[in-house]
Amino acid sequence: MEFAELIKTPRVDNVVLHRPFYPAVEGTLCLTGHHLILSSRQDNTEELWLLHSNIDAIDKRFVGSLGTIIIKCKDFRIIQLDIPGMEECLNIASSIETSEWRLSYVNKEFAVCPSYPPIVIVPKSIDDEALRKVATFRHGGRFPVLSYYHQKNGMVIMRSGQPLTGTNGRRCKEDEKLINATLRVGKRGYVIDTRSLNVAQQARAKGGGFEQEAHYPQWRRIHKSIERYHILQESLIKLVEACNDQTHNMDRWLSKLEASNWLTHIKEILTTACLAAQCIDREGASVLIHGTEGTDSTLQVTSLAQIILEPRSRTIRGFEALIEREWLQAGHPFQQRCAQSAYCNTKQKWEAPVFLLFLDCVWQILRQFPCSFEFNENFLIMLFEHAYASQFGTFLGNSESERCKLKLQQKTMSLWSWVNQPSELSKYTNPLFEANNLVIWPSVAPQSLPLWEGIFLRWNRSSKYLDEAYEEMVNIIEYNKELQAKVNILRRQLAELETEDGMQESP
């Protein structure tokens, strides 16, 4: 997550500033990643430029629809902002409070964690030396970092690799301090381990492990089993085999579909993502998510939880940013996982359709909330295709470190720069989209999770009639938009005529 993305309302007009020795000033309040700025068109007024790092504490109060934020600074100043609108006031206050976090460059040149990006967001109270110590205590050096900040209540999702506790119960006080730094006073948190308790205990016997309650008393650990590696690859192979079966025998088809366990994996992943979102939004508790490495099931869950919670993740640009942040920058090994698909006879242990399962889960939510996503099914299919074979450099390599060593940014074109061209973007835009700022809760009941035909049956039967119906729907929607625009123009013209008639009749 980029630091600026924590700012939900970057600008508010008609804000009144009160500060010592100056008259009250009305102007425009702007929030950047570093400063709080208030500028005014009034003569002889000095702009306010306040660093976020200079804010010591804030108080909020409301009178009707007017909100007031009182900012107490580290240099002992007290500044008051009167903000019109309760929602705007709450968003500004929430954004200012993100000063509890900072950008860390501890992984510059990928020195601490080869699968992390050079810049990560961590609690401000934790210095880089502590992060280096925590990295030695987490699998692959993947110390806990910020994945998502919930604007509504300030709760967060963190992600990491498993702790290396081993059978002797090794502990790391810096790790305990880092995780506890994400908690508000009097709040508890949840550790969602994407392995079963049995698998986690086996990992401990091999030097891995999980957070011990005695050392993390403010955190409740929940185990949710999400399969990985060869089990997922075998599931994909069985599913594709079932879809290619031309016997047309119903019992045989249903038996093969069930035996693949593909939809069971979908259900497990979505259930865990809903649990994480519920902890954040309904229980007001922060969450730490990890499995073993923290590069597969962890990223499935953190990404899907954000799609459930954050409306921006359901837009085209927001979803692109989510994949860039939670998959590419977060170190999902695309080259290893997507080396082969379902037909290859040579099976490598690191191959697994992790990203395809994630896209399938997104499609399931899109199907249940068809008006809440700016992108359509074709956008997800396109991403699946490019993850496995692409002329662009976006999905090449296994980490940002590898992509930098290969100089892919200089040698190849980004997939996003191609997709975001207007001529291409129109193919992937959902004509039914209406911005929905609410949290969406997908059903995980078996009856609600069908097979994704657009991926698994598209080469087995023609989609001609579906495509024609979709085009007709788009045409109808566009016609209605044009018609509505003409109606609006006529209404404005009629209002102008009525105004002119009223002026002529006035004495």
Structure description:
A seven-stranded antiparallel sheet has the order 4-3-2-1-7-6-5, with helices on one face. Strands 10-11-14-12-13 form a five-stranded mixed sheet, covered by helices on one side. α5 runs antiparallel to α6 (250-260), α7 packs across α8 (297-309) and α7 (262-281) crosses α11 (354-368). The longest helix has 42 residues, at 464-505. It has helices spanning 86-97, 128-135, 173-180, 197-205, 230-243, 250-260, 262-281, 297-309, 316-328, 334-337, 354-368, 377-388, 400-405, 408-411, 415-419, 422-425, 453-456, 464-505, and strands at 11-18, 25-31, 35-39, 48-51, 55-63, 66-73, 78-84, 101-104, 120-123, 145-149, 156-159, 189-193, 219-223, 286-290. Helices cover 40% and strands 16% of the residues. The termini are far apart. The protein is an alpha+beta fold.
Main sheet summary? 7 strands, antiparallel
Task: Indicate the proportion of strand residues.
Answer: 15-25%
Low-confidence stretches: none
Shape: globular
Number of strands: 14
Helix content: 40-55%
Oligomer: single chain
Cα separation of the termini: 63 Å
GO biological process, one term: phosphatidylinositol dephosphorylation
Protein name: Myotubularin-related protein 9
GO molecular function: protein phosphatase binding
Pfam families: Myotub-related
